[in-house]
């Protein structure tokens, strides 16, 4: 059935992306935006810790980075639905490049102290907001292309998750070393990558546009549309709830790791980046295994294995006696999280109605990311000696939630879709 856009032309067949164009029009824009996203995510707490030496301000920076990201999801989904992914991705990436470049100049000119800290905290909030607009745009494109590849929908999603994780290999490592060289070098590199993402974003294929309606005008209308769609899809709702609990544990690890690795284990910011890069390599291997497993198993089986791995690592990580063992457990956690992400994204792409795509994607991502600023606040309020107890408590919540949800979804037909289509 054709989907009508503002120009009153059908985009169903017209917008199809030939297989030869997947790299140029889907994967390359996704890769550049994901690298900028990864560098921004992992570098901001490191910058604050390097400038202030304060664990509390490091946690606060993490919270300030994620809070506006969450607030941006609903308007981002609405913008993608109304204007299309390409223009949203271009404007967001170009804006990020300009803001980061201006901040680099400000850090060169300002003296060390409160002014520098304020610049980095504001930069974290602004880049977080702009990054989410680009992320939602790329997610919408990925979902549209996945839906058109009915034979192997999990294949495209596995590639997209793989791109994200490859960026997570390079981003933290690059950011960690550039922070050692100086904040200005890291910000200059981030600005350049953002500019490349803006140029490549113009090549994104068209996405279905939702015509303006009086009952769905503005962000509130988009939120209501996404909520109605999510409530009508119980399997997606349960998966989002489980991944939200898992993300609280992940957010704590991301927020607390600079403090734990630098302050408690006596390592450098480059070691923090190397740890997350090693974890991303493990996640890439896990995603490859999931991709192969989904030719034989259903989504439920892959999800259970991934949930078990992530939960076990989350419970054990507080007992890690050294940097090496801490890194291994972080890698195990991220590998399990990568498998869960493949499951969620595949289900999400298969069952969300096309005309509610941007609104529902933005709402699910909003719910999945709410735990991240909460994690930053927890780290900011928790004395460093007690961080282990907080991480253990969140690990228990994660394990209980994922176990309950996958038992609940044992006979859910949606999680058998991939197996049924072989």
Give the N-terminus to C-terminus distance in angstroms: 24 Å
Q: Low-confidence parts lasting 5 or more residues at pLDDT below 50?
A: 1-16, 212-217
Mean pLDDT: 80
**Overall outline:** globular
Structural class: mainly alpha
- Tell me the Rg in angstroms: 20 Å
Tell me the number of strands.
0
What order do the helices and strands follow? HHHHHHHHHHHHHHH
Biggest sheet layout = none
Beta-strand content: under 5%
Helical content band: over 70%
- The count of helical stretches stands at 15
Task: Fill in the keyword field for this structure.
422 residues, mainly alpha, 0% strand, globular, disordered N terminus
Brief digest:
This protein is mostly helical and 422 residues long.
Structure description:
- 79% of the residues lie in helices and 0% in strands.
- The chain is mainly α and 422 residues long.
- The longest helix is centred in the N-terminal third of the chain and has 35 residues, at 114-148.
Explain the layout of strands and helices:
Blueprint: H1 22-52, H2 55-83, H3 85-109, H4 114-148, H5 153-181, H6 183-201, H7 218-231, H8 234-264, H9 269-293, H10 299-316, H11 323-351, H12 357-369, H13 371-381, H14 387-408, H15 417-420
